[in-house]
Amino acid sequence: MTVAAIETQQLAREFEGGIRAVDGVDLEVAEGEIYGFLGPNGAGKTTTVRMLTTLLRPTGGRAIVAGFDVARDPGAVRHKIGVALQEAALDPLMTGRELLQLQATLHGISKKEGKQRGQWLLDRVGLTLAADRRVGTYSGGMRRRLDLASALIHTPQVLFLDEPTTGLDPVSRRAIWEEVRKLNDEGTTVFLTTQYLEEADQLADRVGIISGGRLVAEGTPQALKSEVGKPHLELNLVDQEGKESRAEEVLGRFGEPMPARDGRLMVELEHGTSEVGPIVVALNQAGLDVESLDLVQPTLDDVFVHKTGQHLEGAQPETDETEAIVE
Amino acid sequence: MIDRLATNARVVAALGRRSVLQTLRRPQLAAPLILFPTALLAIQTAGAGGAVNLPQFPPVDNFLSFMLAGAIVQSVMMTGNSGAIAFAIDIEMGFTDRLFAAPISRYAVVLGRLAATAVLGAIIAVYFIVLGLIFGASLNEGLAAAVWITILVAAAALAFGSIGAAIALRTNSASVVQGIFPLVFVILFLSDAFFPANLMLDPAGWVAEYNPLSFIVNGIREPIIAGWSLTTQLKAVAAVIGVGAFGLTLCRFALVGRVRRGV
Question: Can you give the pTM of this predicted structure?
Answer without folding.
Answer: 0.80
